[in-house]
Amino acid sequence: MKKIYFLLLTILISVSSFAQNPIITAIVDGDCSGGNPKLLEIYADGIVDFTLYSLENQTNANTTWGSTQDLSSFGTVTNDFVYITTSGSATTLASEFPSLATAPTLISGTINVNGDDRVRIVLTSDSSVVDQYGAEGIDGTGTTWEYRDSFAKRVDGTGPNGGFVEADWSIPGASTLNGLGICQSGTDTFETLLGGIGTYTTTMSTNPTVSITGSATGLDYFESNGPSAEGTFTVSGLNLTANINVAAASPAFELSLTSGGTFTPMVTVSQTGGTAMSTIVYVRLASGLTVNTYAEDITASSTGATDVMINVSGEVSPSTPQFSVFGTPGSLNYALASGPSNEESIFVEGLFLTNDITITAPTNFEVSLTSGGTFTPTVTVAQASGTIANTEVYLRLASGLTVGPYTGDVTVSSAPTTDQTVALNGNVFGAATNALVLVGAYDGPLSGGTPKGIELVALADIPDLSVFGISSITNGAGSSAGNIEYNFPADAVSAGDRIFLATESTGFTTFFGFAPTYINGVVGINGDDSIELYEGATIIDTFGTVDCDPNATGTTCPEWDHLDGWAYRVSDTGPDGTFVLGNWTFSGPNAFDGQSDNATAVTPYPIAVYTNNSLSTEDFTSANFSIYPNPTNIGFVNIITTSNEVTNVTVFDILGKQVISQTLNNNVLNVSNLNTGVYILKLNQNGASTTKKLVIK
User: Fold this and answer.
1) Among 620, 570, 626, 336, which Cα is nearest to 460's?
2) Predicted TM-score of the model (pTM)
């Protein structure tokens, strides 16, 4: 009796210990923007304690495993699925795999892999392999297990393998998801195209089964120009007693097992030992069809198995004359008497044309088929047998024009098709006023290297700030040569106004205590990058040597690196058309490391300190000011003017915060409430203004 009890106990222990493993059951490399979503599906076969396991990857042709991800956050899971994805996949995962909205999901860079990479689950304690997808140490590009822009699903009842066993996987082949999915305006989600997610079962079927995956739509051509390009889908089978016949329902579509091979109405996928490995079937719209839309089911069948079908569709379009125009030209600008402008481009192409394509520029603009060549009001692109290949057409604003903006539409025509137009705009700018100057650049310590940006000062009243623009030059790439990346809004600013342009607002405001004036990514530069300030088409100020990287090996350019720090212009210098190192001071690299805000920084950015003689009393035509004592330690300053007009006074602290704003009374300004430090004092009288530095001791 005791022996029987012991035997039963042994059996129970064995059963309870059996099949308690994680199994990789699906892997996806999406075709949405950025190759998203990335997804790995793992099935917990039995009671699986994920604190015991880790995930690793092996990329490209590497032979070592890395990017280890501990799976403990899943806890213990019983007979259910868990998922691993990437941070960049959140949006597309929601749209392409809607059933996973509440599924256990881990965000990890380990699954940020492409279709030629390998992943595996290991026992954390000894790194022994539990399961794996992809052949060890082999770049999967061009292999039968590649899943680039595609997926692979484990065959029911197989795994885990302690390695990679390709026969245990249904693999439709690379590019199966190309151009498909909701993210690319498709009608089916990736989940549908995969035949569902979370479908794996540990029970291996013994029934003959045929599977078909993929989609083949958009098999189009123009009349008398068939056949179409090829589409693909994948066929496989298990437990078969006969080969798989794949047949089109009508002669409109034809099939082949070889790209570019012989296409017929039916092909046969062979099975060996009951298994038909995943096989790519090529399908195309047959030649010689009339103008129409075509759609039908392709059927895959094998004795004893349920037929499966995939819908294919295409269209034969009429061979009518047609052409296309591509491109959006940027602004075409130059300074007075220095035209013509920079060149911008559009592209034209055509099919079945009966006439050449003519491109006609609007008044004051001109066109050419050669960059730097002869520009004329009209050019013609010749068709050959009705076809014009993609051709670049260059556009510019003609020289000799007066100051002002210019607009018009370039017209592209080829009878009998309808004309198409593209809007052009440009400017002829007057002589540069040099009314704006770059005075600072900062590369902060907060998340993402924020705040990043520049400080500028208006040296005179500017009625329209949009005349000025910014370009960034990274890693010594050379001057932007008229390619202005950001123009300021058409705001009016006064002499002495400070302008802070930053990449974002949150980090800037946290660090400096006030919001930036404008936001644009153009100033997302590092400490070894340069900035060019444009007025119209002229570079009026430059920070950094634009054609040299100070950190490059063997570089000879001046060192201006301010990575994780700042650079600030010396007062009464600038603007400089080219970089003058001696006109700048620097914090040195890493000065901001470990700092949380500028006010408490060991080496704070000297915000709003720059002054310039052009902002002194000489700027005023109707008044003359003097301020004393300055510095002051007596709680007030005297502000004397030869005019009897009302004088308005505004004072800003070093962070740009307004601390005083009032009308001057009896020529005395009370500053007793101000702490010791440097302030900016702005005076306005009779429409004129000036800015001065005020020092409180």
Assistant:
1) 620
2) 0.52
